[in-house]
Every structure is written in C-alpha cells, then in structure tokens.
Amino acid sequence: MFRRVLQLGLGPGRLTRGLGTRRGSFTLDWEAQVLEVKKKLRSILPGEPLELHDTSHLPPEHSDVVIVGGGILGLSVAFWLKKLEKKRDAIRVLVVEQDHTYSKASTGLSVGGIWQQFSLPENIQLSLFSINFLRNINEHLAVVDAPPVDLKFNPAGYLVLASEKDAASLENKVRVQRQEGAKICLMSAEQLQNKFPWINTEGVALASYGMEDEGWFDPWSLLHGLRRKVQSMGVLFCQGEVTRFITSSSHMETSSREEVILKRIHEVHVKMDNSLEYQPVECAVVINAAGAWSGQIAELAGIGNGPPGTLQGTKLPVEPRKRYVYLWHCPQGPGLEAPLVADTSGVYFRREGLGSNYLGGCSPTEEEEPDPANLEVDHDFFQKKVLPHLAQRVPAFETLKCLMHPQVHSAWAGYYDYNTFDQNGVVGPHPLVVNMYFATGFSGHGLQHAPGIGRAVAEMVLQGGFETINMSPFLFSRFYLGEKLQDYNIL
Amino acid sequence: MAAPGAFLRRVAREWTRHARGIHDMRESVTPDSSQKRRTLLQFLSSYFHDIEVLREYLLRMEIHKMHWKNRPVSSIQEKYGPSIAGALFVLKQGGSVKFRDKEWIRPDGRGRFSSEFLEFQGVPVEAVDASGCAINYQGLDHLLPLKELRSLRLRRCPNVDDWCLGRLHPLAGSLQELSLAGCPRISERGLACLHHLQNLRRLDISDLPAVSHPGLTQILVEEMLPHCEVLGADWAQGLTLRREEQPRDTGSPVSA
After folding, report:
1. Stretch (H or E) spanning A417
2. Maximal C-alpha separation, chain B
3. What pLDDT sits at residue B207?
4. Burial A10-32, CB ≥16 within 10 A → b, else e
5. Strand partners, B204
C-alpha cells in the first residue's frame, strides 16, 4: 500500500510535469499577482481612499438632524442639541451651509448689539439668558488646546430716547423689564443732559438706560467659537445648497372629523457647489435656520401650497430685507462712555473702538425699502435719512454735514430675516409638515437671542416641549390664527 | 491601582501649584498650541482619548473650584447682616477688610483671621483690599450691598474682567478710590463703564495687559471722569521711537 502511494505521489512523470507547469506559471505572473493582491488589500483596509468613488466631499447618507443654515442660529441649535442629548454621540447632526465664507450671512454683517429693553416678557427672558451665556462663554465653549473666546464685549448700555407721545408706553415697558429682572433706569431730560452732555435733549421727554448687561460684542468671534466647539462635539458640516425635500403624506382626521394631510420629510437633497452632483441625506428632523432665505426653504417643503386662508396655504412670512450700516469718523464726538443710542426718529449709533469712529444706521420705512437682490450700499440714504436726525440729536455730528465728501469711512449692507407678519421670530414645529422646526424670522434680533432660541428648539426636538423659556407664543400657528406678537421697539 | 482619586488629586495639585486663577489653569491644561514644546499630557492627549477626557475633567474641576470659592454665603448674611457677610467673604478669599474707625483686618500667612468683626453690627465697611483673590462676577454679589464702601482694591485679580466692572455701578454713591492694576482680563471696554462712578477721586489703571492702547485709553478715561485722578500708563508709553533715534536714546521713552 505504501508503495502504491509513493508511486502515485512521487511518480517521476506526474510530479515533474506538475511542478514544471506550476513553476512556469509562477515566474510568468508572480509580480502581477502580487500587485493584484496588494491592490485588493489596500481597498479592503480602512483609511485608504477608494479611487473610483471618492465621496469625502459629500455629506453622509444618513443623519438624525439636518440643520439648514450654518449661521449663529443654526450653530446654536446644533450646540444645544449636542449638549442636551442623554448619551454621548446619541444624535448625528449635520449642518448644511451654502457659503462657508459667510459673505452674505446676517451674523457677520451685524452690528452686534445686545439689550434687554423689549416689551414682550419672552424677549426679555431670551436676552437675559443669552447675556448669561455670553458672560460664561469660556465655560460653555471650552475646547481643550484652543485659545479662549474673546467676545470683545462693551458693557456700555443701550439708551432709548422717547418723545412726549411715547413716554407712557416707555414707562410701561420699563416696568415689565424690571419685573423680569433687567436693570433699567428711567431718566428725565435734565438727568439725561447731566449724564451725557453731548446729547441735545430737545424733543426728548423720557429716556431709558440699561445699567448692566447691555452693550455690543463681536459676532464673528462668537460664530467661530461656536463652530469650533460644535465641531469638537461631533457635528458634521457640509457646504452645499438644499434643493429638494422628499416627503410623504398621510391623511388623518381631526377630532372634529376634518380631513388633514400631514407631511413628513424623509430625505434632504444637498447639491454641491458648481456642480450638478447632489447627495440625498436621509433624516428624521429638519431645522430651518436659513435666515433671510428661510422662506425659500419653507416653500421647498411645500409650506404655503394651498388655498389662501387655510393652514395649508399659510406661507412662512420671512423675507430678506436689506439694511445699511455706516461707519464715520468724528473727532469731537461723544466720549468713551457713549452707549448704543436709539433716537426717537429710529436712527441708532454707537461708538466703535478707541479712535472716535462711530457706526450707525436707520431702519427705512415700508415705502423706502431697498431692493434685497444684492448687498450694494446706497450712500444717499445716509445723507438724506440718517444724518439730519443724527446731527440734530448730537450736535458734534454737525461737522459731517459741512464737508464736500462726508467723513463716512465705509459702509456695508446686510440682510434682516424680516418677518412681515409681526417682526418677531418663529420657533417650533410646523403643524402640518411634522418634522420641520423653525428657528428664524427674528428681524434683527436673532444674534442677541441666539443662545436662548437654540436651547428652546433643542428642548422642543429632544423633549417635545419648551422648558427653560416658554416660547409657545412664537409658534407657526399664529400666522394662521392671525395673532400678532407685537414688540414695540425701534431697531 | 490604589486610589485613583489620590492620583488625580496629586496630578491636579501638580498642575495647580503654579496656577493662580482660571486663566492660568487654562494655560497649563490647554497651553497655546503655537508653542513648539508640548507638555507630556498634551502630547498624550492627541493620541489617547482617555487623556483628553482627563484634561477636560481637570479643567472642569478648576472652574468648579472657582465657583465654589465665590458661592453665596446667604446663611451668614441673614444672621449678621450684609456688611459682615461681605467682610467674611473677602477674608476667606485672602483679602483684607477695614471697618469704619477700626483697624485693618488681614488674614495671616495661613489664612486665619480674628473673628472680632462679628461683633461690629451696624458698622459699615469702608475699605476692601481683595488683591490677588479669586473673586469673580458672582463673588461681587457680596460686595455690592456695602453701600458705604470708600476704597476698593482689586489688584492682580485673575478673574475680574469687563463684566465685573459693569456691575460696580451700585457703589457709585460712595466709592472714591478704585485700583485695578495688573488685572489680566480688563480691557478698555470695561473701563468705559466706570463713568457711572462719579464720586471717584483716585483710579489706578496701570499695568493692564489686555488694554490695547494704554496711553490713549488713559486720556479717554481722564476725559470721561473729570474730577478723578487717573494713575496709569504714561501717555507716551504707546509711542515708539523712530528707527534712527533708537540706538542713541534708550533711556527716556520720550524723544526730544
């Protein structure tokens, strides 16, 4: 038996033939085979980019929350979502921003003021929450190995001047503000003249001045501090434009037997810049924090497609409005103690830096609204609308009139995400598109209320209700019900 | 491993031995990344997530310690009154207090102080010297009810910043002397809100590293407070010599 096996195994003819052919194939294809094996290994091992299908520039295919808009409101919502989640890395958040240079975003172009002098208690509470957040910013936004965030906060205060006819409402407003805990003092015209001798108090009956926690800060440093912290918490960023929502509808009946169509967003199509490539991102919740462009995003989700006067036909009334800010130089102007002054005529100004520079502007009336198609500045607006009132209120600014070329160093324009209904923000879910939440429409106050709004939206998404500040008056349904939330303030 | 708590405490003590405030601690736990020489913990934390979590923990502990030092002493306030509560707070932090017509009460090297001031009911506090203490915005709660405070010294306090200066306006009626020399976090923006203190007669704003233009700031503050004597930077401090004159005139800062 052994001999048989040996004969079979070591039979000279078979063995040598077998070996010969194998050796032949070895030497011919050895290098090519090794290369093939190496290529296969490299494509299987993690960390190596696939040459054919490189998708690193695209957003992920699945994300729990997609935040449309990477400005201060979007980043604030992302921060609070990550801070309030129950377990670490429980939620995947994606922030989609169409322009990473923030060239047209309202955050960077903002004057940066923060004050508590509102008439709605919710707005005052939002301001107080935000100022507490900003004061402790380096505890909230601490990132290991990064320099601390320097907000360059000027605690100079906010001064509101009121004429005779507005004096009573100003007193009422200050009473509400004091009840909420803001430290505002009322001054008569003589007291105002003593405190700020550079003001001309003609036409001023009463003034309210914030003693603490009011002033202005640098919005860029807040934006970048938030962005850095939010990235360290694990939020994904993507530069792209949201072009489409894939939704599904379900017919439901209300308790009074009315038929209602509820929609749910399943996918967000994010299109890359300068290309037709897009990525469908499957998501559970979409947050509309797109600022001046929120109206377009809402239309994409089908909000407002319906007969007017019904809930389906109620559009999101947020549209971009252009506002100008001018920077001028006046050597004899108000000193270091000058607060952010809001005149009776709607003109505001504040000091900028140590070098006698001032910046300010005015909100135009409805008839004079400039075209928001671009961010070009109209210098005539300063000459005709802003300067006369400025020079009347602060006589030192008269010198700006007498020169051939006014001392306006520079000017820029930015968008307000203007709520045409009542100039107050929209927060919370839409009643029909069930998983779209709004955080927009604050018409110039978005920056100063951003921490509070972010927290409110995050609480709504995670816990189903508002806990810290009750923002239920800011829900979308008020547009359909016609309940205006008016806050009588100038800026 | 025996007592990881003890190990952590030893590590924390190592790091906090030279740190006097939250800013310094931030420096040692999160040093400036532009420095070429990295510390061992920094090096390890870029490779191990555990070390990064440890550094975050140490930072949070330091912040917590600062909050703990500045916590409100409401129970003492109810029993003895606001001035004694404020005095106790300052003495516990390591500062000194002077009641009207009495001597200065200072803690000795070990932090102990005599408790004779507990009998000074109704005697107002006239001067507080909180130099070098870890007092911050919240801790100022204890000093604001001292309505007859005449002199406040906050030299080299690492946690006093612009927000704290905005809070000093309730003392406007009585405060006559204020010293902020050497505080690393005060900038010209905080100095702008000192205009509420109209009774101020002496203000010391020398050696503030965060003020960008000390000379110009001093001129503006002098304009803002006309009755006050402002000690601070020499007005020519911010000016630099022209290149040709520099090698000759190294002594005086003002060129002839």
Report:
1. strand A408-419
2. 69
3. 87
4. eeeeeeeeeeeeeeeeeeeeeee
5. B179, B231
Q: Burial code of A292-320, b = ≥16 C-beta within 10 A, e = fewer?
A: bbbbebbebbbbbeeeeeebbebbbbbbb
Q: Do B216 and A211 touch (CB under 8 A)?
A: no
CB A235 within 8 A of CB A228: no
Segment B217-243 mean pLDDT: 78
Please check the confidence at residue B240 and state whether its pLDDT lies above 80. no
**Model confidence over A252-273: pLDDT tens digits?**
988 888 888 999 999 999 999 8
The ipTM, to two decimals, is 0.77
Closest Cβ opposite residue A354 in set B188, B196, B224? B188
**Angle (deg, nearest 10), helices A72-84 and A446-463:** 40
Whether chain B has a CB inside 8 Å of the CB on A145: the answer is: yes
At residue A319, the pLDDT reads 92
| Contact between B52 and A144 (Cβ < 8 Å) | yes
Q: A321: closest CA among A363, A360, A350, A287?
A: A363
From the candidates B195, B198, B228, which should be mutated to test the interface with A, based on the most A CB atoms within 10 A?
B195
**Tens of pLDDT, residues B82-101:** 888 888 888 888 899 998 88
Using CA atoms, how far apart are residues B159 and B134, in angstroms rounded to an integer?
6
Q: Are A268 and A66 in contact (CB under 8 A)?
A: yes
Is-contact A339 A157, C-beta < 8 A?
yes
- Best residue of B63, B169, B186, B193 to probe chain A, by most A CBs closer than 10 Å: B193
pLDDT band at B215 (very low <50, low <70, confident <90, very high): confident
Contact B190 A155 (CB under 8 A): yes
The answer to whether the Cβ–Cβ distance between A155 and B193 falls below 8 Å is yes
The answer to whether B235 contacts chain A (CB < 8 Å) is no
Among A226, A341, A339, A292, which Cα is nearest to A446's?
A292
Sort out which chain B residues have CB atoms less than 8 A from A135's CB and list them: 137, 163
What pLDDT, on the 0 to 100 scale, is given for residue A50? 56
pLDDT in tens, B13-64: 555 444 444 444 444 444 444 455 678 888 887 788 888 888 888 888 988 9
Length of chain B (residues): 256
Between A490 and A373, name the one with better pLDDT: A373
Sign of CA dihedral A276, A281, A286, A287: negative
Tell me the chain A residues in contact with residue B221 when contact means C-beta distances shorter than 8 Å.
336
